[in-house]
């Protein structure tokens, strides 16, 4: 530590020259005209911030020349970049350090004066210091006193300073978020937007001691130490997750409004997040503009969603929010013209007419109806008090949706308006990111509503004209999310699909693994399956889903269900890819192919067929009865039963599977027919309730196929005199049985002739008996899968 403080002068410019400026750095030579700290940790110089635009900045020195992704820790002129021609930073004889744009305008200066020889030094702490030559203690100016969005270890953050976020991940200009010491000595985060501003950290409704802060130390100073402890005079401390090690560290107010501690080992490129101020990023104000709210999906990140009946104002800038697609004026906001749509787990902070305790829902609704400006109300149970609170709202800002929030917003809508909450969430969640780096400036006027005389509007922040830049707020944010291990489980209780142990592949990896999807090995209802070779030499089957328009969140939800399933007769899933429109699943590869392939190639003797029948039954019994959720496969057929090298079956393809909560069987959720012709139970055809017995029926058909060697898909051609007609396998077997009395002679009639007469009669009789029970028309006559397993197991080791 002490060594860090030893000062190395790299560039010493003494005021002994004849010129008016003692030294200068030129933007044209920005690659050579740089200042490097003694140990090389930091570099100062002209940093490109856009097309022909430069800011004088300090950044962590990088190995490669490309500055585009350097970690900038300070900027002199973040809001006023200089031209790439003739701009320079000069230390004048008067002692002033000045940045001139295109040789003419001073855009920034240290406002220092001195008649003594001066030197400009970049310390290894990242502090750029202007001081008298060889006078260590005499600092005229230092960058540590004027932080931008980042604090470095041992940099004091004091009452005179504030951190201001950047506009976005790739725009360095000042954004809307600020960290500062408030008048009551508390360190706070403020959203200072073009229209409104509000404190969001610590939670604004908490008094200092409830937020574990003390307001009676007026020294107002905070500091991050080299070991990773950030502490402030108001008793706020943040101990980083890697506290105790000397690492490169920084504390940055990110463009999404959260302060994060980052750390990395020396020489490494990637920063890890080791702590953050705001524990619930969804609740950060201003991220989603008015009439929209943020939702979090662990994998896709944070999104802004318009309220039902509202449309996004600017698809490239979520912070502008949404506007109503309907019109309600004071005279038609009556009960007969409006209705309230409930949005559970959604909250909007602020802009309440009142906080009314112990109100019934009806009272709350009536209150809102009477208020012309009331566009929604929040109604929730406050647990500590055991009473319901009513919060009628005049504006809907700072919205978020979280399963942990136990209240609802009731949104006022015209009675006619038909709006689906879901359609809105799915369709307009995504943000169109503008690749255009040019700064688009929009003039936006804010017209204040006429105030209703009888109502005092609390928290009404009026403001005049504002200028909003079109931003891509979230791109880098997503990037951080994806790369940071520390965000795997966020505090809302979401668990990433990653927790299920799947590997996430990129599309290009899988494209390469399948040699551009050249070797097709199967086609299912949901997609096409290709053989692939991963870079670690594992052979895999890669299923590319056709329904690529499926929302990533929905896709991941299904994955997490599959991830919890684990049975030796269930195909193993190794990974997935969800990138843009692409949805792919990576499975273990079965060398021997499917049951269909094996039946047609005559590779299966009776022993193997019995083993496959039993294994498949066990797997289905597991799915139906042992899993936490009750899972129907709904597409049991030989193509979906794969065979491993030991002739064990592995049930594959959950493309059509439907999860059904036990005791909560909602038949209406099966809106369309599922399954494959020939294997579908009569319930599908007659529109009867769908239960696990549909899988039992399909399983019975598969057994019949294994016994007879005939395909259920094509059916059986019957020649009846001159006429021929096609009969289903099930009908064919049933008819055979009707004309016979004994099971034994039935077996002889239907058995697969290609296997000769060398069969185990007991086993075959069992199989046939089970198969016929499974394909009973009446679902209650069919056994369940565990009964099937039992019946098959009884004769597993028999032989005649
Ligand atoms: C930074 O950019 C260089 C060159 O484009 C690239 O090789 C490197 O991987 C990038 N680093 C990060 C952390 O993005
Ligand atoms: C610098 O300027 C200020 C006023 O602008 C003056 O009071 C001060 O004496 C000057 N210092 C030096 C060293 O010239
Ligand atoms: C400091 O503030 C706390 C409340 O935050 C109060 O209880 C305490 O008495 C104060 N101490 C002093 C010395 O003022
Ligand atoms: C962090 O620093 C504060 C103030 O110096 C101190 O009270 C606290 O104990 C430190 N925390 C750790 C973990 O060292
Ligand atoms: C106030 O905070 C500063 C910095 O954390 C600390 O050095 C000082 O002792 C505190 N003063 C009191 C009275 O607690
Ligand atoms: C309410 O009134 C406004 C104008 O007064 C009209 O434009 C709007 O269509 C009406 N809305 C309904 C739902 O009647
Ligand atoms: C709530 O209001 C009802 C009557 O409206 C009253 O009986 C009850 O005591 C109130 N509860 C509380 C907790 O104030
Ligand atoms: C989503 O936004 C687009 C573009 O603003 C709009 O055309 C579309 O109607 C919106 N969809 C919904 C469901 O609001």
From TrEMBL:
EC main group: transferase
EC number, as in UniProt: 2.7.11.1
Domain Protein kinase: 515-798
PROSITE patterns with a match to the protein in the record: BULB_LECTIN, PAN, PROTEIN_KINASE_ATP, PROTEIN_KINASE_DOM, PROTEIN_KINASE_ST
Membrane topology: Single-pass type I membrane protein
Domain Bulb-type lectin: 20-143
Any GO molecular function: protein kinase activity
Record's signal peptide: 1-22
Bilayer-spanning residue ranges: 457-480
Family statement drawn from the similarity comment of this UniProt entry: Belongs to the protein kinase superfamily. Ser/Thr protein kinase family.
Protein name: Receptor-like serine/threonine-protein kinase
Organism, as annotated: Medicago truncatula (Barrel medic)
């Amino acid at each position: 530590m002490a060594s860090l403080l030893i000062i190395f002068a790299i560039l010493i410019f003494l005021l002994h020259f004849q010129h008016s400026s003692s030294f200068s750095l030129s933007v044209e030579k920005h690659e050579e005209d740089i200042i490097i700290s003694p140990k090389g940790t930091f570099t100062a110089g002209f940093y490109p911030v856009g097309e022909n635009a430069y800011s004088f900045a300090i950044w962590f020195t990088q190995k490669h020349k490309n500055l585009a992704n350097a970690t900038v820790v300070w900027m002199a002129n973040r809001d006023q970049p200089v031209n790439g021609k003739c701009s320079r930073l000069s230390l004048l004889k008067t002692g002033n350090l000045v940045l001139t744009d295109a040789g003419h305008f001073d855009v920034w200066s240290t406002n220092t004066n001195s008649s003594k020889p001066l030197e400009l030094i970049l310390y290894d702490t990242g502090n750029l210091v202007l001081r008298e030559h060889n006078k260590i203690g005499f600092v005229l100016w230092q960058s540590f006193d004027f932080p931008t969005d980042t604090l470095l270890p041992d940099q004091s953050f004091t009452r005179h300073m504030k951190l201001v976020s950047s506009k976005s991940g790739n725009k360095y200009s000042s954004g809307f978020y600020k960290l500062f010491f408030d008048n009551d000595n508390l360190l706070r985060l403020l959203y200072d937007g073009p229209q409104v501003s509000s404190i969001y950290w610590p939670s604004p409704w908490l008094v200092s001691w409830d937020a574990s802060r003390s307001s009676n130390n007026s020294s107002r100073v905070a500091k991050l130490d080299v070991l990773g402890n950030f502490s402030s005079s108001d008793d706020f401390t943040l101990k980083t997750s890697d506290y105790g090690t000397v690492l490169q560290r920084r504390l940055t107010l990110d463009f999404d409004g959260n302060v994060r501690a980052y750390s990395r080992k020396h020489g490494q490129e990637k920063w890890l997040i080791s702590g953050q101020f705001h524990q619930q990023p969804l609740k950060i104000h201003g991220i989603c503009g008015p009439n929209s709210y943020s939702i979090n999906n662990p994998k896709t990140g944070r999104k802004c969603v318009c309220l039902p009946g509202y449309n996004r104002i600017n698809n490239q800038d979520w912070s502008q929010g949404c506007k109503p697609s309907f019109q309600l004026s004071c005279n038609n906001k009556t009960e007969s013209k409006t209705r309230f749509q409930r949005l559970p787990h959604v909250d909007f902070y602020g802009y309440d007419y009142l906080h009314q305790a112990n109100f019934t829902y009806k009272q709350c609704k009536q209150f809102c109806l009477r208020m012309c400006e009331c566009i929604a109300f929040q109604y929730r149970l406050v647990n500590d008090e055991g009473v319901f609170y009513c919060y009628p709202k005049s504006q809907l800002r700072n919205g978020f949706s979280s399963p942990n929030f136990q209240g609802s917003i009731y949104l006022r809508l015209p009675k006619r308006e038909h709006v689906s909450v879901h359609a809105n969430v799915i369709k307009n969640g995504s943000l169109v990111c503008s690749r255009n780096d040019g700064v688009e400036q929009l003039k936006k006027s804010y017209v204040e509503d006429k105030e209703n005389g009888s109502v005092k509007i609390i928290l009404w922040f009026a403001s005049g004209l504002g200028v909003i830049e079109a931003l891509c707020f979230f791109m880098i944010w997503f990037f951080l999310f994806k790369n940071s291990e520390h965000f795997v489980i966020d505090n809302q209780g979401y668990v990433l699909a990653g927790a299920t142990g799947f590997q996430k592949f990129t599309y290009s990896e899988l494209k390469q693994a399948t040699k551009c999807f050249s070797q097709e090995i199967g086609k299912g209802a949901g997609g096409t399956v290709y053989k692939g070779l991963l870079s670690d030499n594992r052979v895999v089957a890669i299923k590319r889903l056709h329904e690529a328009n499926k929302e990533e969140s929905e896709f991941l939800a299904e994955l997490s269900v599959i991830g919890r399933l684990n049975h030796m007769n269930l195909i193993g899933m190794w990974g997935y890819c969800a990138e843009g429109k692409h949805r792919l699943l990576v499975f273990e590869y079965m060398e021997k192919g499917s049951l269909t392939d094996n039946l047609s190639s005559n590779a299966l003797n009776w022993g193997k067929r019995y083993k496959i029948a039993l294994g498949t039954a066990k797997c289905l019994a597991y799915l139906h009865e042992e899993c936490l959720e009750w899972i129907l496969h709904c597409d049991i057929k030989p193509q979906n039963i794969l065979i491993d090298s030991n002739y064990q079956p592995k049930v594959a393809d959950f493309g059509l599977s439907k999860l059904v909560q036990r005791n909560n069987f909602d038949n209406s959720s099966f809106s369309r027919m599922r399954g494959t012709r020939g294997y579908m139970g009569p319930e599908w055809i007659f529109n009867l309730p769908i239960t696990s017995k549909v899988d039992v029926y399909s399983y019975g058909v598969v057994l019949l196929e294994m016994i007879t060697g005939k395909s259920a898909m094509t059916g059986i051609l019957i020649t009846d005199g001159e006429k021929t007609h096609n009969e289903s396998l099930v009908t064919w077997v049933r008819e055979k049985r009707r004309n016979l009395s004994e099971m034994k002679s039935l077996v002889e009639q239907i058995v697969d002739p290609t296997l000769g007469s060398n069969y185990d009669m007991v086993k075959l009789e069992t199989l046939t008996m089970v198969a016929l029970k499974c394909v009973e028309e009446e679902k209650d006559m069919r056994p369940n899968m565990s009964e099937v397993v039992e019946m098959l197991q009884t004769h597993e080791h028999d032989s005649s």
